[in-house]
């Protein structure tokens, strides 16, 4: 959670995203704990595989 807080605080970012392979359940769990919500599944052309894209916005 420190990296997320640093991104929102010191770096001033408004939104963070995650790009995770659908079979990587451990990374999906970490993303959820960080407040990420999976928004869509897209094709990653570099991998030739679908990935899940999640995001979380800076708290108000």
* Helicity level: 25-40%
Biggest β-sheet strands, sense, barrel? 3 strands, antiparallel
| SSE ordering | HEHEE
Percent in strands: 35-45%
Individual helix count:
2
Distance between the termini: 17 Å
Detailed description of the structure:
- The chain has 60 residues and is α+β, with helices and mostly antiparallel strands.
- The protein has one domain.
- Helix content is 27%, strand content 38%.
- The chain is built from 2 helices and 3 strands, in the order H-E-H-E-E.
- The protein has a 3-stranded antiparallel sheet with strand order 1-3-2.
- The longest helix is centred in the middle third of the chain and has 9 residues.
- It is elongated.
- The mean pLDDT is 94.
How is the secondary structure organized here?
Layout: H1 2-8, E1 15-20, H2 25-33, E2 37-44, E3 49-57
Antiparallel strand pairs: 1-3, 2-3
Short description:
The chain is α+β, with helices and mostly antiparallel strands.
Structural key phrases:
single chain, 60 residues, alpha+beta, 3-stranded antiparallel beta sheet, 3 strands, elongated
């Amino acid at each position: 959670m420190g990296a997320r807080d640093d991104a929102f605080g010191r770096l001033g970012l408004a939104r963070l995203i995650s790009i995770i392979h659908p079979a990587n359940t451990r990374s999906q769990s970490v993303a959820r704990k960080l407040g990420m919500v999976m928004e869509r599944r897209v094709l990653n052309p570099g991998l030739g595989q679908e990935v899940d894209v999640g995001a979380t916005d800076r708290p108000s």
